[in-house]
Amino acid sequence: MSPRDARLSRVSNTRDLRERLAGLRGPAVPPRAMDARALAALAANPGCRRRALLDAAGVDKGAVAQALGNPAPFGQSQFAFARGHAFEARVKADGYAELLRLLHAEGGDVALPELTAPGPEGRVARTTMALEEATATDRWALLDHPLLKLEVAGSPAYLEPDAVAVRPDGTWTVVEIKSFPILDGSADSVKVGAAARQAAVYVLALEGLGVGGARPSHDVLLVCPKDFSNLPTAQLVDVRKQLSVTRRQLSRLTRIEEIAAALPEGTTFDPGAGQDTLYEAVNAVPAAYAPECLAACELAFHCRDRARACGSVEMLGRGVRGELGSLTTVEQVLAAALGTDGDPADPAVEALRRAAALRAEAIEGALECR
To answer: What's the confidence (pLDDT) of residue 14?
Structure first.
């Protein structure tokens, strides 16, 4: 096959996949964009084909969960959302004065390229062009809400960081603006970790650009309110660990076209399709539930109910699941512990029986002491 034919084949396959995903979402349902927060959650659970497919298709998982009767109180509150927007506006006010101060670029010649363009592909191209132009100079540049593209399991995801700064030496720095406070020089470790995982997705997308050999910095500038004021302050966060984990986990994702091809004809995730139809569609895609999903996925309650109904050990956590090896249900675990089933040579079975024996001895000793 000639290079031209191969390129045309890839374009045709991409078009077919997009049409297939649009059909799964519902012809009248607008796609829900996959953002860095969703990608970070997906990277934390790469074995979940359900989330990978629904996110790639732009399915509103919250609406699906509502239609299934298992809504999850997931996502930012309207108050937190408004507070975050207000703080970002404060950081970028007066010609980005506060942000330039935190970058130590105040008083310098700073370029502020225009990034508007029609459609996501146009905005990605304009962002790439702006980065190329800024990297070729020896001056500061600040890209406000650039649009990046990252291929995830064969499907493009469009990502929009708060800002990307280009330093005079050509280094790119991702800027994350969050509304949680930095108190006495430190912030909530859980929230900082979530911000670092999200920022790592942006860095990964920037790495794929390959503009003139330039590479993004692994130190992300996290901008937050200082103490209990609304005054912006910042600290650098090293995201090399999160970047490595995200890169490895995303590479393990099954390609979207393979997941979609395994679905029965006529499958739809349209929230208006009816509860029974939606129930069959969702359960036709394998999931990998873990308790951590409750803080990261709108379908977590539905998946938890299914895991409980099946007696799956996944509901006990990934650590427990990893220790149990070939034992995949609670029933199998109990049978192995009681000695009524299971291979005695299996290390997990042996450990369970030893634990059951120790428990029996402890109970017997406690009864004798009474």
So the answer is: 62
